[in-house]
Amino acid sequence: MAASIMHLPNCMIWPSFLHLTRQISRQHNIRLGKHPLGKRFLCTQHTLSQASKEPSRTSSVPPPRKMPTRYYGQPAPHTHPHLLQNKEVTYGVSRLEYSHRRQRFVSEMIQRAARKHENVSRHIVLIPSAVQQYMTHDIPYVFRQNTDFWYLCGFLEPDSVLLIEATKSKNITTLFVPPRNASRELWDGPRAGTDGAVELTGVDQAYSIDEFEKYLQAYLKGSRNFGIWYDYVTPANPTVHGSVIRKFITQERQAFVEQCKPLIQKLRVIKSPAEIELLRRAGQIASESMMETMKFSYPQVDEHFLWAKMEYECKIRGANYLAYPPVVAGGNRANTIHYINNNQLIQDNDLVLMDAGCELFGYNSDLTRTWPVSGIQYIY
Q1: Is 112 helix (H, G, I), strand (E, B) or coil?
Q2: What number is the average pLDDT over the span 152-167?
Q3: What is the pTM of this model?
Q4: pLDDT in tens, 300-314
């Protein structure tokens, strides 16, 4: 088709493309010019009122700030109004909800410390972001944020650190983020920088990641009898762990070192109304996509084709990507639990097993269905 379009007169290329786009839009019930997630659910007043009843450990909610009119390293309400409503950090989740997650985390942390370390009155929490991974020297994989870091602040850039200083009466949240750099942003895209990180997420303050080590050393000079909360068993960022955090811990000025992950995962078990809606939508997208994929089954179809069809259907409905490498197994290959090669032809009279789901802004669906490769005549 690309070859045929190239030979059309310029005045005919756009109408031909528009006609094709309208055909696809009618097939998938998508309006032209409207994002598939454009019909937004609301972060209900119930969510905010429930959150406001919880005891606050911060001095005050940060006052509204004017959002800079530039792009960040992630969607923002002023750059992606089709995705984010005002005061949302990520799709469907507001700054207020992220703030209350941190408050609940600090509350759980202090309660646990009181049972095990009753004489400790100060705490410092260190949660690094994920690291950008590369296929080769300069070809990156799609970046996926560290889930625990994401849950507490919603900042989606790599090579960052969330730091919380907490006592029984208050806490201060600081983000350490990659600094603005015109050369790197030319290659990798815009960065929020320190001002953008504060404006977007609502944390108390932000500094360049280059100042992280200096900040920790200053904390040591002014603090006594404190606890460190950090996941040292499997560091999320080995570079920051080896160059900065391990030095901080091995000076042994702290009363103890505890892991954050058990506390955060305990909080994540209970979903807010906004999270429930995200999960519902992720399930709906995967369900509709798998039903559509079933219609394209036929004898001798390549498993990889069905994989690609599932991914395509999820993405045009608004999913970010598949939740995990899918299993698309024909016949006896379905007995291999984690069969992800997906590179065989499916023979006539075989069954197809598909185990797949999608991710929608950090929330995943997971479906498994089996059907005859000859297709399903009626789908209810």
Answers
A1: helix
A2: 97
A3: 0.82
A4: 999 999 999 999 999
